[in-house]
Amino acid sequence: MAPSDVNQGSQDDDVLQEAANWLKAGKKVALATVVSSWGSSPRPPGSQLAVSEDSTFVGSVSGGCIEGAVVTEALEVMESGESKVLEYGVTDELAWEVGLACGGKVKVFVEAVQE
Amino acid sequence: MKTSMLDQILRDQEAKTPVALATELATGDQALIYYDSATGSLANNPEIVAAARQAIQDDKNGTVKLDAGEIYFQTFNPPLRMLIVGAVHIAQPLSRMASVVGYDVTVVDPRQSFASPERFPGISLNHEWPDDGLRELDIDRRTAVVTLTHDPKLDDPALGVALRSDAFYIGSLGSRGTHAGRTERLKGEGFTEAEISRIKGPVGLNIGAISPAEIAVSILGEVTDCLHAKEKKAAA
Measured between alpha carbons, how far is B11 from B20 in angstroms, rounded to an integer? Predict the structure, then answer.
């Protein structure tokens, strides 16, 4: 399957604005971005999730399937300052693994926003 | 990402300056690339700069394998635009809904009592005659045009300008009868049947919409459908 890089009708502007607001308030912030997606994953490349140090988040990188796991990773990234690439695929329901029930696959880049 | 880079992207969005953020996925190194300049640690790589400018042009986010490695490009183009001709009742919910979806909306109507800030809070208003107004607004391929007056003396000049533009959507309110009359008049002005067929009329998806807000939903649905038609075809 070819990566879907669908024209984004609208950018998630408010996600970046919220990230900037948190930084101004002196909070640590990490940003997660869908950098490729395959199959029926619900959010195209460019979809973003911003996370603050108190675990508050805005935006999305899936239909709610992997946000919990991505927030946990984002908290680590904002501590270490080292960016990370995460991949999520089809859920193995028996193993209760974090994944996408839709059968799609996404690659998510997580980075700290810092000085 | 550096805080300064995030602030710069937000300033560029405010100024409606197209920009792409390039990220080397393995290292997290980044650059901000414009049509005429570039800054950041990846900015000296001509391959990356060229690919970023192409991404802005194509309005596409995605990861590309280059000699330098896997590079992700995120584009920040100014918002899509919707130009609504006719500050009528349907224009009120349509302008609000389209704003939520991310469109930069302008309502064009020379009748100042219709196109008033009280009726359209927070929406850009243009009080020129519709053809002058639309010419001024410089319709491009990232623009949708919707005429809602169903008054030929306001709608027809607007449609003439829209048909000569690259607008990705042209819709015109009116019954089948109204639309047939409009088609004849536009033919009289020298437009071909093929050109006129770009106009969606009766406007909107057929979802049984009755109230102004429901009609706005059906129009916005059709605009979305046209915007993503290419990708839909590719996926089928």
Answer: 13
